[in-house]
Specification:
With 150 residues, this protein is α+β, with helices and mostly antiparallel strands. The relative contact order is 0.13.
Length: 150
């Protein structure tokens, strides 16, 4: 009984193509698994809504004039915070009001919260009043634990 020695000739180009196709197949399987597999970031539980979507306002009274702080939210995000009905005389009397609101609204948009908002000492009182108004508007938008509106 003689065994015959078999010699297999592989072309390097074929080996490289095969390795590339195997790697692409593995990447495709992993991609499909992560796209359509179970959601792991929330432990498989869907995120519940924090807010009732809509536009909410709270009012500030400055020198007998009313200025409204408007907060636009969707179910889980604060989309915008702005001043509306800002009278020209109020803007003149309180020049830091609009600048403070711009700074605060940018930070609120990035943080999605009114916690840990920073402001300078020159406009700390203005910023505090504005943050209180934003908190009041967000309180109107919050969803209670049973899912109903407050």
């Amino acid at each position: 009984m003689r065994s015959k020695t078999k010699i297999v000739v592989l072309h390097m180009k074929e080996v490289i193509y095969t390795a590339i196709f195997i790697a692409l197949g593995i990447v495709l399987v992993l991609l499909l698994f992560f796209m359509f597999g179970p959601d792991r970031k929330n432990g498989g539980v869907e995120e519940t809504a924090q807010y009732n979507a809509g536009v909410y306002t709270s009012s500030l009274r400055l020198d007998g004039k009313t200025v409204d702080v408007q907060v636009v939210v969707d179910e889980n995000h604060i989309n915008s915070v702005s001043l509306i009905n800002l009278d020209e005389t109020v803007a003149t009397m309180y020049p830091l009001l609009q600048d403070s609101m711009d700074s605060i609204s940018q930070q609120i948009y990035e943080e999605q919260s009114t916690e840990n908002i920073s402001y300078t000492t020159e406009n700390q009182y203005t910023a505090t009043v504005l943050l209180d108004a934003v908190d009041a508007a967000l309180e109107k938008a919050k969803v209670e634990e049973d899912g109903s509106e407050q």
